[in-house]
Predict the 3D structure of the following.
Amino acid sequence: MDLIEQAREELKRADHLIYISLKYTRTCDIIMNTVKRLVESCDFVILALLEKFKERRKSLSIPENSLSRAELLVSLDKKYKSHIKLYLLLCKIRDSEFDRREEYRKHVTMIVHLERRSLEVTVPILEEYYFSIKDFVDTAEGEI
Protein backbone atom coordinates (compact mmCIF):
# COMPACT_ATOMS: atom_id res chain seq x y z
CA MET A 1 0.00 0.00 0.00
CA ASP A 2 1.51 3.32 -0.99
CA LEU A 3 1.69 6.37 1.25
CA ILE A 4 -1.20 8.27 -0.34
CA GLU A 5 -3.48 5.26 0.11
CA GLN A 6 -2.45 5.08 3.76
CA ALA A 7 -3.26 8.79 4.11
CA ARG A 8 -6.69 8.15 2.58
CA GLU A 9 -7.28 5.28 5.02
CA GLU A 10 -6.51 7.58 7.96
CA LEU A 11 -8.92 10.14 6.47
CA LYS A 12 -11.64 7.47 6.28
CA ARG A 13 -11.09 6.71 9.95
CA ALA A 14 -11.23 10.41 10.82
CA ASP A 15 -14.43 10.78 8.78
CA HIS A 16 -16.02 7.90 10.68
CA LEU A 17 -14.96 9.40 14.01
CA ILE A 18 -16.48 12.79 13.13
CA TYR A 19 -19.73 11.71 11.52
CA ILE A 20 -20.52 8.48 13.37
CA SER A 21 -18.65 8.13 16.67
CA LEU A 22 -18.78 11.78 17.68
CA LYS A 23 -22.45 12.01 16.76
CA TYR A 24 -23.34 9.34 19.32
CA THR A 25 -20.75 9.72 22.06
CA ARG A 26 -19.93 13.47 22.12
CA THR A 27 -16.67 13.12 24.03
CA CYS A 28 -13.38 14.98 23.88
CA ASP A 29 -11.56 11.68 23.58
CA ILE A 30 -13.16 11.18 20.16
CA ILE A 31 -12.12 14.71 19.17
CA MET A 32 -8.54 13.97 20.24
CA ASN A 33 -8.52 10.65 18.36
CA THR A 34 -9.73 12.48 15.26
CA VAL A 35 -6.91 15.01 15.58
CA LYS A 36 -4.43 12.13 15.87
CA ARG A 37 -5.83 10.54 12.70
CA LEU A 38 -5.53 13.82 10.81
CA VAL A 39 -1.91 14.18 11.95
CA GLU A 40 -1.16 10.62 10.81
CA SER A 41 -2.73 11.34 7.43
CA CYS A 42 -0.54 14.44 7.05
CA ASP A 43 2.55 12.44 8.04
CA PHE A 44 1.93 10.01 5.17
CA VAL A 45 1.33 12.82 2.66
CA ILE A 46 4.44 14.75 3.69
CA LEU A 47 6.54 11.60 3.41
CA ALA A 48 5.05 10.82 -0.02
CA LEU A 49 5.82 14.33 -1.30
CA LEU A 50 9.37 14.19 0.04
CA GLU A 51 9.88 10.82 -1.64
CA LYS A 52 8.79 12.44 -4.90
CA PHE A 53 11.28 15.28 -4.41
CA LYS A 54 13.98 12.73 -3.56
CA GLU A 55 13.44 10.98 -6.91
CA ARG A 56 14.22 14.28 -8.64
CA ARG A 57 17.15 15.23 -6.43
CA LYS A 58 19.24 12.24 -5.46
CA SER A 59 21.14 14.25 -2.84
CA LEU A 60 18.01 15.00 -0.76
CA SER A 61 17.92 13.23 2.59
CA ILE A 62 14.61 12.82 4.39
CA PRO A 63 14.78 13.53 8.15
CA GLU A 64 13.49 11.02 10.68
CA ASN A 65 11.61 13.66 12.69
CA SER A 66 8.15 14.46 11.34
CA LEU A 67 8.38 18.17 12.20
CA SER A 68 11.70 18.42 10.36
CA ARG A 69 10.11 16.70 7.36
CA ALA A 70 7.31 19.28 7.38
CA GLU A 71 9.79 22.16 7.47
CA LEU A 72 11.79 20.57 4.66
CA LEU A 73 8.66 20.26 2.52
CA VAL A 74 7.86 23.97 2.97
CA SER A 75 11.43 24.89 2.05
CA LEU A 76 11.15 22.78 -1.14
CA ASP A 77 7.70 23.99 -2.20
CA LYS A 78 5.98 27.06 -0.72
CA LYS A 79 2.49 26.13 -1.96
CA TYR A 80 2.15 23.65 0.93
CA LYS A 81 2.80 26.33 3.56
CA SER A 82 -0.84 26.72 4.68
CA HIS A 83 -1.31 22.94 4.94
CA ILE A 84 1.88 22.56 6.94
CA LYS A 85 0.80 25.40 9.21
CA LEU A 86 -2.41 23.49 9.97
CA TYR A 87 -0.40 20.28 10.43
CA LEU A 88 1.84 21.99 13.00
CA LEU A 89 -1.23 23.31 14.83
CA LEU A 90 -2.73 19.82 14.92
CA CYS A 91 0.55 18.46 16.30
CA LYS A 92 0.44 21.06 19.07
CA ILE A 93 -3.18 20.16 19.83
CA ARG A 94 -2.28 16.46 19.93
CA ASP A 95 0.58 17.04 22.36
CA SER A 96 -1.17 19.53 24.67
CA GLU A 97 -3.26 19.17 27.80
CA PHE A 98 -6.97 19.84 27.40
CA ASP A 99 -10.14 20.44 29.37
CA ARG A 100 -13.64 19.37 28.51
CA ARG A 101 -16.79 21.45 28.23
CA GLU A 102 -20.33 20.24 27.60
CA GLU A 103 -19.18 16.69 27.14
CA TYR A 104 -21.99 14.26 26.19
CA ARG A 105 -23.98 17.23 24.86
CA LYS A 106 -24.57 18.76 21.44
CA HIS A 107 -21.90 21.46 21.76
CA VAL A 108 -19.04 19.34 23.08
CA THR A 109 -15.86 21.43 23.24
CA MET A 110 -12.27 20.45 23.85
CA ILE A 111 -10.32 23.37 25.32
CA VAL A 112 -6.65 22.92 24.43
CA HIS A 113 -4.01 24.77 26.45
CA LEU A 114 -1.28 25.90 24.05
CA GLU A 115 1.81 27.93 25.04
CA ARG A 116 0.25 31.37 25.37
CA ARG A 117 -3.43 30.82 24.72
CA SER A 118 -6.31 28.41 24.86
CA LEU A 119 -7.96 27.03 21.75
CA GLU A 120 -11.48 25.67 21.63
CA VAL A 121 -12.00 22.72 19.31
CA THR A 122 -15.65 22.08 18.51
CA VAL A 123 -17.23 19.73 15.99
CA PRO A 124 -17.54 22.42 13.24
CA ILE A 125 -13.89 23.41 13.73
CA LEU A 126 -12.88 19.75 13.60
CA GLU A 127 -14.78 19.42 10.31
CA GLU A 128 -12.89 22.41 8.91
CA TYR A 129 -9.60 20.75 9.87
CA TYR A 130 -10.78 17.53 8.23
CA PHE A 131 -11.67 19.25 4.93
CA SER A 132 -8.38 21.15 4.87
CA ILE A 133 -6.40 17.94 5.36
CA LYS A 134 -8.55 16.21 2.72
CA ASP A 135 -7.68 19.05 0.33
CA PHE A 136 -3.99 18.55 1.20
CA VAL A 137 -4.22 14.83 0.37
CA ASP A 138 -6.04 15.58 -2.92
CA THR A 139 -3.45 18.20 -3.89
CA ALA A 140 -0.57 15.89 -3.09
CA GLU A 141 -2.16 13.01 -4.99
CA GLY A 142 -2.39 15.25 -8.05
CA GLU A 143 1.31 16.03 -7.73
CA ILE A 144 2.39 12.42 -7.40
Notes: The chain has one domain: 3-95+122-143. The two ends are 15 Å apart (CA to CA). Residues 28-56 form the longest helix (29 residues).
